[in-house]
Specification:
Length: 242
Amino acid sequence: MGTYKCCIFFTRRFAPGEASTPEDVRTLFSRFSGGTPYMGVDELRRYLAATGGPDADGDGEMDAAERIVDRILQGRSRTPRFGKPALTVDDFHSFLFSEELNPPIRQAKVHHDMNAPLSHYFIYTGHNSYLTGNQLSSDCSDAPIIKALQIGVRVIELDMWPNSSKDDIDILHGRTLTAPVSLMKCLTSIKEYAFVASPYPVIITLEDHLTSDLQAKVAKYLEISCTILNQNIFKNFLHRKH
């Protein structure tokens, strides 16, 4: 009678939890709502006057409070309680992070000095940018890279591993069941979509798990990339001692 080995993989799914309203927002809401679970137009008007919010000064103050309450209730598909427009703490939280109070978060509105060195900025960064799903068994593709660039991500990470025949480079999450995608396909997609959402530099980080001969091949690919990326490429090689 033969001996058999069985390997079983389990998939565990986690339901995303709803983000709760921060405690400091709850405290602020309670302060201006008088401890009640609802904030009406009068209470919001007092908050705007105290914090210098939209139209806090002048005759337009009441109109601003009414307009804000109506807009929030309509945007969140809620009907006024007992016919009287009022905000819940979640509505108030949404208002605090709205574009009306925070103009810099509006898309296509750069308000910083963009002439400083790169190290002066926070950079929208991707991790394992090629994965279509989990890090153990999903496919690798240029599609997530394209999607990331379309929403303005400026750092793309590619993990480089030898392919099955050890003669070329695959992009994948190493030592897992992820299915690979080619390095050149990723570079070509980066070239096509790098600046669709932002004119600022794209940084490509290459995690190296290659043999020396394949490293030389990547170096040739990077030379080709100067053409692929329209020669808009700055190369910085860090040499490591083994």
